[in-house]
Amino acid sequence: MKQRAVKILGTGAFVPPRVVTNLDLEKMVETSDDWITTRTGIKERRIASPDETTSVLALAAAREALAKASVPPEDLDLIVVATVTPDMLFPATACLLQKELHARNAACFDLEAGCTGFVYALSVVEKYLVAGGGDTALVVGAETLSKILNWNDRATCVLFGDGAGAVVLGIDEKPGILATILGSDGQGSHLLDLPAGGSRMPASPETLAQNLHFIHMAGNEVFKFAVRVIVDASLRVLEKAHCTMEEVNLFIPHQANIRIIHSAAKRLGLSMDRIFVNVNRYGNTSSASIPLALHEAVVQQRIRSGDLVLLVGFGAGLTWGSALIRW
Ligand code: UT7
Questions:
Q1: CA spacing 20 to 30 A to 222: which of 116, 194, 228, 241?
Q2: Is 157 a known active-site residue?
């Protein structure tokens, strides 16, 4: 019997046209281009307009991925949108995307795993397809984090940005996705969260007055966690696929902070020329960061057929995940 494996057929991405630089932020909060650049590596980010919701960004990225894959929307069996900024609490943003794509044969749901959302979705959908749940799927990571940022809080508003990335997955005999690793630690759930608007703290004048509908983060704690799990998740997925770090052509980590990437690179013995970085241009776009970077790497021909690509994510939950892909 032939092996049923999953491969990436096409990638796409979209970012809102509006660029907000560190100099722009200097006019809004007590910060400086120097602080943001040295502490994070970020120089600018994209910020959505009121009309650019998460599903709008997702749609543009999805259309490009489908076109690159030459897959018509009606061939999709499954659409998963990884996001922490859905258009609404329900229905799923994936259903809103389905409507615009006219992908009438697809089952649709959202997946929320913080900044690891895309890697989680990739892993879950790969297993769904291998098990025979369908033959073709669309996985999107899309965020409009600007809409849940407190623009008076310099500790968070300088870090995040908006964007979307998408991949179309299909069945092949030779595996593209070689292995994935997922993990979580709910003990760290309080380190990065958006406290109000759910069943624990429904929206009220008090929650609004206390800024509880915005991102809250214990930056230092998350930083230490990130460096630890990037290294661990990278080594574990390589071991699972019987590959070594030397064989990896391109390492695409979640783009949160250049210092986290440098630390992980040092511990993994990776030179920067094998690491894809675009955090300087987009900031941290959460679930969108890895598919956006993956798409740019493909467009820039940093990834070629036969290359080994390692994706690693980490974020709210706490969650982490890695995927090893033969291109
Ligand atoms: O994607 C989800 C995962 N999230 C992450 O990976 C984020 C992980 N954390 C980080 O990237 C870093 O912890 C931050 C970039 C958030 C912060 O960097 P840090 O080196 O850990 O700085 P800090 O929080 O220890 O703050 C140092 C100082 C503080 O002042 P004092 O108390 O030393 O006087 C802050 O008040 O920097 C101050 N500060 C700022 N100053 C200018 C904080 N934000 C700013 C700012 N501009 N925007």
A1: 241
A2: no
pLDDT one-digit tens code per residue, 151-199? 999 999 999 999 999 999 999 988 899 999 999 999 999 999 999 999 9
* Known catalytic residue at 115: yes
Q: What is the pTM of this model?
A: 0.97
284 is catalytic: yes
Cis bond upstream, residue 318 (ω within 30): yes
| pLDDT of 1 over the 70 cut | no
What pairs with residue 251 in β-bridges?
Answer: 275, 310
SS3 of 210, please?
coil
Ligand 1 midpoint to CA 30 (Å): 13
119-128 as b/e: b if 16+ CB within 10 A: bbbbbbbbeb
Domains and CATH numbers, the chain: 5-174 (3.40.47.10), 179-326 (3.40.47.10)
Q: Which of 108, 115, 257, 295 is catalytic?
A: 115
- CA 115-61-107 angle, to 5 degrees, is 80
